[in-house]
Fold:
Amino acid sequence: MNTLQEVYSPSRTTRISVQPARRPRVLFLITRAERGGAQMHLLDLALGMSEEYELHVATGEEGFLTETCREQGIPVHVLPHLEREIKPWSDLRAVHELTQLMRTVEPDLVHAHTFKAGFLGRLVAKVLKIPAIYTVHMWPFGHAVPLSWRMVAPVCERWAARWCDKIISVSALGARDAVQYKIAQESQVTCILNGIPDHRSRASLDHDHGASCTMVARFTDFKDHGLLLRAFARVPGEARLKLVGDGSTLAAAQKLAEELGIRERVEFKGARGDVPEILAQTDVFVLASKTETLPISILEAMRAGLPVVASDVGGVSEEVLDGETGILVAPCSVEELSAALRRLLADKSLRIAMGRAGRRRFEEYFRADKMIQQTEKVYRQVLAERVAV
Structure:
């Protein structure tokens, strides 16, 4: 709080009241409040910066993120027209809501996450002459992205890049793509790898009872639960598969598991808040995806000391070292994914070796404190440059 302090001169005859400088005020923007990688990323930043900055979080809905922020004493603002889908009339109303919010909060810096919040948030910040930073969690490029997004989103990203001071990519590949697709100049883009806080839960892989594998991901078209179920159907024995998450393709995945005759070996565990404890009770982490940037779920697995089997898409190879911390497989290949699962589920010594290597890699590159320090450096740079102008 800004309270008056009393300062006395050496003679103690003069009392001077001074107003201490307030902490810089940062407004985080994100479209969805669900339990997802971008939301976890934003939350880790907010919790790690709460002592140095006065923080506000704005999103388009109630959910995991808003509930957690309130529990931590971080002011939350829900903008009902800030939706993920492209809806021109609703988007105009979202611009009005963002304008009113920024005029009320008066942030020193806007930090936007995800495409829609990033586009509209940067537009309003530009109009109001507020410095802005955009963290891209996934560029709207590639065959896995709907055609309508591929047609519109890259153009929008090029426009919006002119409205912000800095673009942060959570992977090196994303930073390179920004330049390759002419989104922004190289000097405007910086790579800050995703990081997560450490956790005491560790997987215990040195056992002889039945092995299991786990995938933590929302059930969406970007993830390939169908591929994983077909690959797992070829894994013999009593191995079990745990699927953690919820979403629009959940019912289709449950139906496919029934059709493949593996429903009794597959646990659909829903959206969970105890992912570290679930991973501690598994032996292999798997992520079948059509597209990725730098998935948080793989970092959670490495933190737990698990070997990883993952589709070699996006920035996954920046996390998983093929043959050392896990096995990378071609996307959409049932044969490669099944072979990798069979190999690891059958070889305890290999699981242990890869799990330990993954844990060491997590400690060196993917800790939250490193991500927070690098992001704060960007904040200081942007704020200092604005003051100097």
